[in-house]
């Protein structure tokens, strides 16, 4: 894909204004989103990172820790304590692979599977707070994902 050259004049002074920073818009939106999620997740007994892990496991139970880490962009040093807390809460079980003990599978417990039904109200709450249509939210999500992918490339 060929990009068209930007013909607008670059204004270095305006570029340094806080409100012109994409990074700040994303950062402050992330803070606002996390604040919105907190009371919803408190009802489930989950932190935001734990919720993300549960979302992945609700999609695909029985993943290995390494696959979960890749999906969430988390290293094992961050993921392991998170998983230990989920296990202590009775939501997951960590099972060592019989062929290679270094590999650990994560399985939802009955309580972990049951929690999904209580979490189903969360996306609607976020949609209401965002005050936009489903197509708008889907488009915004895709744009942010595309930006993330370009920045990581």
From TrEMBL:
InterPro entries: HTH_MarR-typ, MarR/SlyA-like, Transc_reg_Sar_Rot_HTH, WH-like_DNA-bd_sf, WH_DNA-bd_sf. PROSITE patterns: HTH_MARR_2 (PS50995). Pfam families: Staph_reg_Sar_Rot. Residues 19-149 form the HTH marR-type domain. Keywords: Cytoplasm, DNA-binding, Transcription, Transcription regulation. GO terms for cellular component: cytoplasm. SUPFAM superfamilies: Winged helix' DNA-binding domain. GO terms for molecular function: DNA binding; DNA-binding transcription factor activity. Its main location: cytoplasm. It is found in: Cytoplasm. PANTHER family: ORGANIC HYDROPEROXIDE RESISTANCE TRANSCRIPTIONAL REGULATOR, TRANSCRIPTIONAL REGULATOR, MARR FAMILY. GO terms for biological process: response to stress. It comes from the Bacteria. This is MarR family transcriptional regulator.
